[in-house]
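Notes to self after the call with IL:
- keep both proteins in one doc
- input above output, always
- annotate only the second one for now

Protein 1:
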Amino acid sequence: MARLMQQYYQEILPALKEKLGRTNLLAVPRLVKVVVNMGVGKAIENKRRLECAVRDLSLITGQRPIITKAKQSVAGFKLRQGQEIGCKVTLRKQRMYEFVDRLVNIAIPRVRDFRGLDPKAFDKFGNFSMGIGDQSIFPEISLDSVEFNQGMDITFIILNSKSADDSLELLKMFGMPFKKPGQEK
């Protein structure tokens, strides 16, 4: 069992139930899945970029990504419908908790000039999204093998969240470093 998963069930879940005043454990917010997406716009010109992004994303997440295709044609970007322009991975259960644990404890502290995550990055359903500018902050990526710096978007899908505050509290208990209220950008 993943370390963070065990911590969630033994410590975080009871504490969150108490803090939010919920009577049923199943009514407490919980992390359902994490979606990691790499949009590789430069793949239109150079197919090698997409291959590198797929390789790096599979190393980071431990799961083979699917390749995403353009839904529409956009003449300004020289983009045709059906063209391969990115890759994504949906993590659930044990792999999800392992990824979040590595993200919080290893990858985020390696970001230069990091001042905290934006607590306003929640949608109306309580899901949280964040962006990372460079894949090399993850220890699985060897700096010698990086051909192209590529950013990624990470979305945390949270179930049973009645508000963004409930989701914020859950992610804080996971150890996510959020900015304090009133802290500058």
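Protein 2 (the one to annotate):
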Amino acid sequence: MIAKMRKFRQYLQHMAKMDEINSRILRELSRDGRLTNLELAERVGLSPSACLRRVQELERSGVIKGYRAVVDAARLGIGFVAYVTVGLNTHTKAAQEAFERAVSRAPQVTECHNITGTVEYLLRVEAEDLAAYKHWHTDVLGVLPQVRSITTFVVMGSPKDNRA
């Protein structure tokens, strides 16, 4: 009971720290993770030292997990993007772990989500072109012993994409 109360107090403390200024800091860093502390402080209305303390606390507490570069897929030769649902033939932990290990080794898979519904996984797959995707679909994903079903949804355009 005491441990539960301690966790609840920690949760409340964390929520109290997530005020409007921290929300603005996160919004600005999500838009541009390369902002200098001075630029960020100006945008959120803090002194540079106060802003830096808040960013460091957000990092230390795990709210900010890291920073990434947004790359132009076309310039990297990626001309085909699809979301792929995968249903497994057995619903065991071992089957899920084996599937996840196999997918983690596939450079074409940029996201893997275990989801609810009629299938177990949703993947974001990026390939050079349709032929490269077909090869991966047939010769890599399609031969995994855990896979029961594969459905591909080809991305035709992305009018909004906030992934970083």
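Annotation: The two ends are 40 Å apart (CA to CA). Residues 2-60 form a domain with the Arc Repressor Mutant, subunit A fold (CATH 1.10.10.10).
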